[in-house]
Amino acid sequence: MIPDGTKIGLFIPCFTEQLFPETGMALAKLLRHFGLKPVNIPHQTCCGQPAFNSGYPDQVVPLAERFLRLLEPYEWIVAPSGSCVSMVKVFYGDLELSSRGRERWESVRNRIFEGTQFIYHQLGIEEIEGSYPGRVALHESCHALRELGVEEEPKKLLGSIKDLELIIPPGSQECCGFGGTFSVKFPELSSAIGLQKLSNIQSTEAQIITAVDDSCLMHLEGLIKKRGMGLRTMHVLRIMEGALGI
């Protein structure tokens, strides 16, 4: 168990900072609620995932080297994004890092976690008190599921909340169609994948779609708004925050 008062470095991804700051705040509030001291990591920038996913690993190396220098001093690093954590924890290993950068990565990759993963495993929190009425469908984000193994954590945490009916829709582990720059390069295919996901969710009569990545939710929300669907999206951490009333 991690002692009360331990400082936790907050890795706040670009999407979160620029478009979904409330998700970053939810993570900070949750960590404080559980007795920890979340601290902002000064001067953090993009982890390099967009360039890496677009096929430019050489351009990512300077970002990765700098990012690892910034993360290294923190005993624990937590982010509200399985996608960005997987970039640092897994895909930095595919880069041509310097020998010192490789040493930093070997150290950091064992101390960086997605939010629900950290709360469930490192803090040992398996139940969330409070109430959050509604029918909530879980989308299991690709990177969190396949690279980090995040599967039971959001299910257990959400499933413990009073008055919340957790729904695992058909195809919950299938891609939403976002894929970062994939959705820009192949918009028709991206939209078709997303609409199939939404069709599966609508069949369950869910009211809210949740996930551990706001990027996936942003993609689905765009399709929802264009077609006037009666659904809304909300990050898992924000639902937990709402249930606890913090």
From TrEMBL:
<dbReference type="Pfam" id="PF02754">
    <property type="entry name" value="CCG"/>
</dbReference>
<protein>
    <submittedName>
        <fullName>Fe-S oxidoreductase</fullName>
    </submittedName>
</protein>
<dbReference type="GO" id="GO:0016491">
    <property type="term" value="F:oxidoreductase activity"/>
</dbReference>
<feature type="domain" description="Cysteine-rich">
    <location>
        <begin position="136"/>
        <end position="220"/>
    </location>
</feature>
<dbReference type="GO" id="GO:0005829">
    <property type="term" value="C:cytosol"/>
</dbReference>
<feature type="domain" description="Cysteine-rich">
    <location>
        <begin position="9"/>
        <end position="88"/>
    </location>
</feature>
<dbReference type="InterPro" id="IPR004017">
    <property type="entry name" value="Cys_rich_dom"/>
</dbReference>
